Amino acid sequence: MPTDLPNLLTLSRIAAIPLLVVMVALRLPWADLAACAVFSAAAITDYFDGKIARQRDAVSGFGRMLDPIADKLLVGAALMLLAGFDRLGGGLALYPAILILLREILVSGLREYLAQLRVGLPVTPLAKWKTGFQMGALGTLLAGDSGARVLGLGFLPVSVIGEAMLWTAAALTLVTGWDYLTAGLRHAEAEDGSRTRAPGPAVRP
Prior knowledge:
Shape: globular
Number of strands: 0
C-alpha cells in the first residue's frame, strides 16, 4: 500500500524536490547548507525504504515501481539545479553530470525493455558504490563552500571535494552503464534469435 512506511519514505524523496529547489534558488549560505541537509536526508531514505520493506515482508509492486523513479527524479533535479545555478566549478564538472544523467536514462530504458521480457536488471555491487559517490558528491556540491563556512569549515575545499567525487561517480557510471547495456543487448539478441528459430505455420498440401 502507498501508506506503508517504506512507500512513504520513497514518496518523501519526491516531496523533497520542491523544497530542494527553493533552498538552492535562495542563493544564501544557510540555504545552501539546508539544501545539502534536505538532499542527504532524502538520499538516505533510499537505503531504509528497501531494508524496512524486506524486514517487514512488505515489498509491494507500488514500491518496486516508484523506488527507481524517485531516485532518478531526485538526482536529476539536483544535477539540473547545480548546472542551472552555475555550481559546477566553472563548467568542467558539467561533463560528469551529463554522463550521470545519460546513464540514468539508459538504465531506465533498459529496465522498461527487459520488464516486457519479464527479466530483472539487478543492482550490482559496483553500482551501489556509484550511487554512494554520486549522492555524496551531489550533497557536497549543494552545500558548497558557502555552506561549509556556515559550519566554520571554510578552510576546506568543499566544492573541489564534491567535484572529485562527481568525477569518480561518472567513471563508475561508465563501467556500470556498459555492464547494463551489454546485459540488455544479450537479452535482445536472445529474443531475436528465438524469433528466427521459431517454426513457421504448417502448410497443408
